[in-house]
Amino acid sequence: MRRVVEPTAKVAGALSSAPLVVTRSRGDPSDVPTLFRFLVVVAVLAGIAFAAMFALATFVEPTPREISVTIPNAKLQPK
């Protein structure tokens, strides 16, 4: 457990001579910087997206089929 002691605090508009003691446990999520938390979330989401694309590319086989395209005669004859 970590203690943070600040010199004095205002209590109801008057100065108090007692120090303000704030206690936090070690596992408190507010100890983690916000930027680091954001980057971890972005990295996890990118990992999930990469895993989904890899799974689709690996496990899904496209079905081959014939395609016929009609080309107009005007495009076939030289100018």
Automatic annotation (TrEMBL):
The chain crosses the membrane at residues 37-60. Keywords: Membrane, Transmembrane, Transmembrane helix. This is Uncharacterized protein. It comes from Methylobacterium indicum.
